[in-house]
Amino acid sequence: MKKINKIILFLFLLTIVQLFSYQYFKTIKITGKSAYKQFFLTEDIYENSKNNLGDIRIIDKNGKEVPYVIETGKEQEKHSEKVIAKAKIDEVLMKKDKMEFIVKFNSDSSLKDIIGNRLALISSKNFYSEYTLLGSNNGTDWEQITSGEIYKTPDKANLTIEFSEKRYEFYKIVTPLDKGNIFSEAILKLSNNEAVKLKTVGTKLDYKVEQEGKSTILKIKSKFLPLKNIVLDVNDEFQRNYAVRSGDDFYAEGIISKVGEKSNLIINLENVPKLSEIIIEIRNGDNSPLKIKRVTGNYVPDRIVFRATEGEDYKITFGDESLDKPEYDIAEFVDSIKERDEVLVGKLEKADGKKVSKPRDYTVYYNVFIGAVVVILIGFMLNKINKNKK
User: Fold this and answer.
1) Residue 75 parent element (H or E)
2) Could you say which DSSP state residue 134 is in?
3) DSSP readout, 254-322?
4) Is pLDDT at 192 greater than 80 in this prediction?
5) How far apart are CA 30 and CA 343, in angstroms?
6) CA distance 241 to 386
7) How many Cβ atoms sit within 10 Å of the Cβ of residue 228?
8) Residue 174's closest CA among 102, 264, 86, 68?
């Protein structure tokens, strides 16, 4: 019976504790009086963690997991937006090959000046259309503001028109006639991006150069960094087309040049995901290959925010490919956390396969435990019955 009790105790402990391992860690030096702390991810964290950073954990001195949120470069930008006025489409006109949607914003008498820089259109239909936006203060004399493309699909929508800050009481949206009556309402907004200097890091990137036909293939070790651009150091005078890819995936193309004192040696990577290697194909034509001396990458590091309840140091751990990205409540209210202390992380250290216990939701595991106990007891009883029969 003692053996049965030991087995049951072992199963119970197994069901309530999950162990996750990590290969690397850094010590987080806690300073400041604010409850919330923040720090920027370093290059070696990107290089040694999963591409989506899902294996990152923050743990306290007891090895307990601490909730955190990662703020990307875009999420670090301070942004505010307020609704100036809302209105139904006041008039729809059909003129030859175009439709004109006119909206008048005068519903809020408290507004002395109806100033906005974003017009959000409301539509219940799926469509894709080119547009021209005009503004007026009397409904008769119109000024063109901007033009572009808008669309709405079951998966995504782009129904907001951005423009320079203006004061207009009337707006007119002009679309091709065949698009039909696609708008029902409009919302005038004023968006304000506060001037904020984002932390930008420059780093030297390793690379190798190969020649394929009339193209130079530049293979850059990008180490999963959130690169905004790379800068080439080249002595020659030239102008070449380039394309950015990784494997069979194509991301961008453009022109790099250096003529006299004028140069454009920056390759934009805004739309390129984090990769271990980025390939730049430089099309030389009949010209000699470029002599590239150095490649520099620039990126805005992600920022981690967490609550420090202890005055002692914490750890950031990473390097376990089996871990999934956690979801914590702090992600829902991080924008309201105004007081934060910026803290520093120490050097990269090897963990030697150390394991950390992670608290779990006991409900499912308790049920598993009960089921296991029932199976063991039934087996024990059947064994006793068989012995008595003998």
Assistant:
1) helix 73-76
2) E
3) EEEEEETTEEE-EEE-TTPPP-SEEEEEEE-TTSPPP-EEEEEEEE---EEEEE--SSS-EEEEE--TT
4) no
5) 6
6) 83
7) 18
8) 102
Architecture in CATH of 201-299: Sandwich (2.60)
State the Cα–Cα distance between residues 227 and 296, nearest whole angstrom: 10
Q: Which residues of 180-217 are buried (b: 16+ CB within 10 A; e: fewer)?
A: eebbeebbbbeeeeeeeeeeebeeebebeeeeeeebbe
Question: CB-based contacts of 367: which residues, under 8 Å, 6+ apart?
Answer: none
C-alpha 350/C-alpha 347 separation (Å) is: 10
Give the integer Cα–Cα distance in Å for 174 and 295.
46
- How many angstroms separate the CA atoms of 369 and 373, rounded? 6
Task: Please state, in angstroms and rounded to a whole number, the distance separating the CA atoms of residues 287 and 285.
Answer: 6
Is 3.40.50.2000 the CATH classification of the domain at 79-193? Answer: no
Query: Distance (Å, rounded) from C-alpha 291 to C-alpha 262?
Result: 18
Cα gap 149→158, rounded to integer Å: 8
C-alpha span between 16 and 66 (Å, rounded): 18
> Mind listing the pLDDT tens digit for each residue in 31-59?
998 999 999 999 999 999 998 999 999 99
Span 255-282, pLDDT tens digits: 999 998 889 999 999 888 889 999 999 9
Other CB atoms within a 10 A radius of the CB of residue 80 amount to 9
189: β partners: 83, 118
Taking only the tens place, the pLDDT of each residue in 216-230 is 999 999 999 999 999
Strands 340-342 and 36-40: parallel
Q: Is the pLDDT of residue 235 over 70?
A: yes
Closest CA to 360 of 370, 368, 371: 368
pTM over 0.85: no
**Which of helix, strand or coil describes residue 141?**
coil
CB within 8 Å of 332: residues ≥ 6 apart? none
Q: How far apart, in whole angstroms, are the C-alpha atoms of residue 305 and residue 69? A: 5
CB atoms closer than 10 angstroms to residue 39:
20
Q: Regarding beta strands 344-345 and 57-59, do their DSSP bridges make them parallel or antiparallel, or are they unpaired? A: unpaired
